[in-house]
Write a structure and sequence with these properties.
alpha/beta, 2 domains
Length: about 500
């Protein structure tokens, strides 16, 4: 790993059958504080036997949890919701220490996860099926939504509490048991959530947490006793998850990467648009799948929006996430910092205009941290790597377009289709944009159009592999399967009939 682990460093455990558990293997990773570069704890990497143990715990707990009434399951989630709210500061502090994002940003992600829990507490209503009387003479039909069994989630480093909460509450409310493999880069938030669920009354084995790398992921994707896999991460890995798990007979929802565009029309309130774009581009150091990373400025909006962005970018404050006066923190690892710097180098070589250069930033007292200043490029073309690739850092690029038609075409030709936004004061232009854009989540003067929990989250094209989005109505559909029951209570015994049954 290239780092020395301090003797006092704690080790993150697994959570299996309602309690902490050590790994049976010897492989591990190091969790660093990105603001200092120092190792803060070690994390075990699960082997196949560890994953088997977690899945077996979930499989054994499934019959009793499935038999628990939806109302009782919902009440446990209600208590969990209250505990999440009470422990928001503790969870946010753990996220900030291991991820680097600011404390308010971390607390906001706890809140968004908590909202999914609130949605899931309505599960008795959401699991109601349909009923039809007299589909035939003396025959009724009804449908029921039933759980799948053991489900698994594989979640990314950028939202270590929110992304697991997109999956776990809905899966559990529907009667499934769950195995979570959170990011090994910031695992502590998931362990806190597991402890709080147990405190809320969740039976042992219903939720299990294992950590690890590719070996743990592939063990999950190929495990015979896992019925469904949910994933959030980069597009190449999302494709691998979808193809591998599907080939092993599993239901899959795999959310991939993004290159989210914001189109700024000439009639927009440019000051409001610039303020919105700064938060959307640079919040969480750009490490968001819903970050705006490309602005398409239409016509005369171009120079005007770039000048406003430049002034605002230069005023942003960078530092450790636990400092109250900081706007954005460090990147997650040294390797990721080097990668993002490499894209800035490439943008210069490719001929983009570097308006604000974030390289060379030094944060006093945190010289070992993985800091990069916010960076702004103008006059970017679609051929440049800083446009084509998901950089996942504090780098915003501006393209120019002659018309709103050309801007829509730019967005629609992107291989990604996660989120997008348009800034305009024209209802007609906004309506046309929302209708024609080939993207799963659309904002009208809203820069980060993340749906509330009672809608579903997901993109189009290479931003999603699978048919169903996360949480909301699609989440319930994903974590259940429909059974239709047709019933007759005959008053006399019918003669044997070998013909195709018809309803008369």
């Amino acid at each position: 790993m290239g780092m020395t682990t301090p003797a006092a460093t704690s080790t993150v455990s697994f959570w299996i059958n309602g309690r902490p558990m050590a790994s049976g293997g010897s492989r591990h990773g190091l969790v660093t504080n990105p603001a200092t570069g120092q190792v803060v704890r070690t994390v075990p990497f699960a082997n196949d036997a560890d994953v088997d143990l977690a899945v077996e715990s979930a499989r054994a707990a499934f019959p009793a949890w499935r038999a628990t009434t939806p109302l009782r399951r919902a009440r446990i989630l209600m208590r969990f919701r209250d505990l999440l709210a009470q422990h928001t500061d503790e969870i946010a502090a753990a996220i900030s220490e291991e991820h680097g994002k600011t404390l308010p940003d971390a607390a906001g992600s706890v809140q968004r996860g908590l909202e999914v829990v609130e949605f899931a507490t309505g599960i008795p209503h959401l699991l109601k099926g349909e009923h039809a009387e007299d589909v035939g003479t003396g025959i009724d039909s009804h449908s029921v939504q039933q759980p799948l069994g053991v489900c698994a989630g594989i979640t990314p480093f950028n939202f270590p509490i929110m992304c697991p909460m997109w999956m776990i509450p809905v899966a559990l409310a529907c009667g499934n048991t769950f195995v979570l493999k959170p990011s090994e880069k910031d695992p502590s938030a998931s362990m806190l959530a597991a402890r709080l669920l147990t405190e809320a009354g969740l039976p042992d084995g219903v939720l299990n947490v294992v950590h690890g790398d590719r070996q743990a992921v592939n063990a999950i994707l190929t495990h015979d006793d896992i019925a469904a896999v949910s994933f959030v991460g980069s597009t190449p890995i999302a494709r691998h998850v979808y193809e591998t798990a599907s080939a092993h007979g599993k239901r899959v929802q795999a959310l991939g990467g993004a290159k989210n565009h914001a189109v700024v029309l000439p009639d927009a309130d440019l000051d409001d648009a610039a303020d919105a774009l700064i938060g959307a581009a640079y919040g969480s150091a750009g490490e968001r799948c819903m970050a705006i990373s490309a602005v398409v400025a239409v016509g005369e909006a171009g120079d005007a929006i770039v000048s406003r962005l430049r002034d605002r970018v230069k005023s942003l404050r960078v530092g450790p996430g636990d400092r109250r006066d900081v706007d954005l923190g460090p990147l997650i690892t040294q390797a990721h910092l080097d990668r993002v710097r490499g894209y800035i180098d490439a943008g210069e070589r490719e001929g983009a205009e570097l308006v604000v250069d974030g390289r060379g930033l030094r944060v006093e007292g945190h010289e070992g941290g993985y800091f990069l200043g916010p960076t702004l490029f103008d006059k970017v073309t679609r051929a440049m790597s800083i446009y084509r690739d998901e950089i996942f850092g504090p780098v915003l690029v501006v393209l120019r377009a002659d018309s709103d038609e050309a801007a829509i075409d730019i967005v629609n030709q992107s291989p990604y289709g996660n989120g997008t936004a348009v800034f305009t004061q024209s209802g007609a232009a906004a309506r046309r944009f929302a209708n024609e854009i080939q993207v799963g989540m659309v904002g009208i003067n809203v820069p980060i159009p993340v749906p509330m929990a009672f809608f579903s989250f997901g993109g189009w094209k290479s931003s999603l592999f699978g048919d169903l989005h996360m949480h909301g109505p699609d989440g319930v559909r994903f974590y259940t399967r429909t059974k239709v029951v047709t019933t007759r209570w005959p008053e006399h015994r019918d003669a044997v009939n070998l013909n195709m049954p018809t309803m008369q």
